[in-house]
Amino acid sequence: MKSSFHPGFKPLSGKRYLINAGPTREPIDPVRFISNYSSGKMGIALADCAAYLGAEVHLVLGTVSIKPSSQYIRIYNVTTASEMAAECMRLFPDCDVAILSAAVADFTPETTSSIKIRKSSEPFFLKLVPTTDIASELGKIKKPDQILAGFALETDNELGNAIEKLKKKNLDIIVLNSLKDEGAGFGSDTNKITIIDKNNNIHKFGLKSKNEAAKDIIDKIISISKEIR
Description:
Elements: E1 16-21, E2 26-29, E3 32-34, H1 41-52, E4 56-61, E5 74-77, H2 81-91, E6 97-100, E7 107-109, E8 128-130, H3 134-141, E9 147-154, H4 158-168, E10 173-178, E11 190-191, E12 194-197, E13 202-204, E14 208-209, H5 210-227
Parallel strand pairs: 1-4, 1-6, 4-5, 6-9, 9-10
Antiparallel strand pairs: 2-3, 7-8, 10-12, 11-14, 12-13
Helix pairs in contact: 1-5
């Protein structure tokens, strides 16, 4: 695949990218929440890469400790899965590409206590309900000239689960990560990805920095954009 990275070349000029990144936090009470280990590094690398290539980037960002390098990225800070879903749904209709790299919680507490839940000797049961599936909702409203890219972080049946997600959610590509691959987990500065498109083309990449992995993903999206013109 020919790279789009040449000094001064801005192939994404005039394009609007929506990217989400980082974890969500689902509150239990004022001092506790459900979350995950996502650092947001992969999504932020994607945002910086797209901005470098000339795109207008809208980044919906969960609670993270790092920020993009580019000063031209528009950041929308969110905390919960519902907030992230609302921002993505609002922004997507006016975007050319959406890359959903955030680690959005699949479940959230059915009720949230307004006061701290006190410890007791009795078991504590927490009822969880599903959150909005952002990829599925965007897939339902995606126009023919829009590109929707998702991520799949798997621990078993990696390729099969990723392909099923790709088809079920009307994605154009899906980026597969496996927690079995050393150096490809949450918080790492490296990643090992496999890109699968809706034509069942599978591209496997070796262990790279997340900045380099972001370039591979953007290159694939650029090649798809040329196909649908």
